[in-house]
Amino acid sequence: MKKLITIILTCCALCGCFLKPYRPTIQQGNVIDPVKVSQLKLGMSKEQVKSIMGDSVLDDTFDQNYWSYNYTKQINGGKINIQELTLQFKNNKLVSINK
User: Fold this and answer.
1) Do residues 69 and 84 touch, judged by C-beta distance below 8 A?
2) Which domains does the chain have, with CATH numbers?
3) CA within 20 to 30 Å of 53's CA: 1, 64, 80, 89, which one?
4) Which pLDDT tens digit goes with each residue over 1-59?
């Protein structure tokens, strides 16, 4: 009986060595939807842009005319995928879209 218990415990311990640990998918920031980005047009007001894209994750306290949307996604501890979108305003109008 002791041999059987020892064999079962040994097998369980060895099986644990071969299993990958669970690593959750990690998402951070604003999801940058290409459909929404295609709706952005130069000359739009900040309010119009905000209604399409939502609030930006990063607010530049020194320059309120620079909005940055960032999104990262890592699946199961793998490579981190990064998406960035930078919008620049002048006189409350969208003047630059950088992807």
Assistant:
1) yes
2) 24-98 (3.30.1450)
3) 80
4) 777 777 776 766 666 666 677 888 999 988 899 999 999 999 999 999 999 999 887 77
